[in-house]
Amino acid sequence: MSENPAPEQLPPPAAGPVPPVPPAPGFAPPQGFAPPQGYAPPQGYPAPQGYAPPQGYPAPQGYAPPQGYPAPQGYAPPQGYAPPGGQVAPAQGYGPYVPPAAPKAVAGASTLGVVAFVLALIAAVGASMIGGIAGYGIGAGTGRDIALQPTDLTFDWSILTPVREWVLTGELAFWGGTILGTWALVQGIIAIVRNRGRGWGIAAVIIAVLGPIVFATVVQVFVTAGFAAGATAGG
Hints:
The protein is mainly α and 235 residues long. The chain is 45% helix and 0% strand. The chain crosses the membrane at residues 114-138, 172-193, 200-229.
């Protein structure tokens, strides 16, 4: 008679989930093996080479991506984790894009602005002084004839014949001041844009713009003074 109990006499199996079987010591999955989607290695089990957790899935505790391998989206390194040498830890967060600041123009030599300032000064002051002297000569030489000329007639340009030298001088002063003033205005703007004597360039632009007004005012004052002097001298 057999000593083994009959099958119907064996105790029933225990109810509940079967505990996982730990891997054999020294076991490593083959190279290139990719676990099925949704698989996560148990705690303490090294992830196979080339394994990346699915998108949005938190990496298991103690897992670190291999060197040179980018961390998956949503992955946060565990507390106290330090990246291996040569690897930068992922940024904590991304802010709005801020474009780099434009490089400031380096100030160069101020020669360009200084030259523009000198040209504007010559155009405004020099041309106005020459024009004023010529205007006084024209007024003094024609004051008597203009005072005796009837007012109901058109202006007789032959009156300017005795003072034609002063008329020519006044024209040269006007056109010379116009050319130098335009030159100073353009060069002053270039000096401002290129930051090469910006202060001098700003002053040159202001003087060049006001130059024609100064010239016209000075010539008008001196011509009027010359007319008065000429009419008085002629009796």
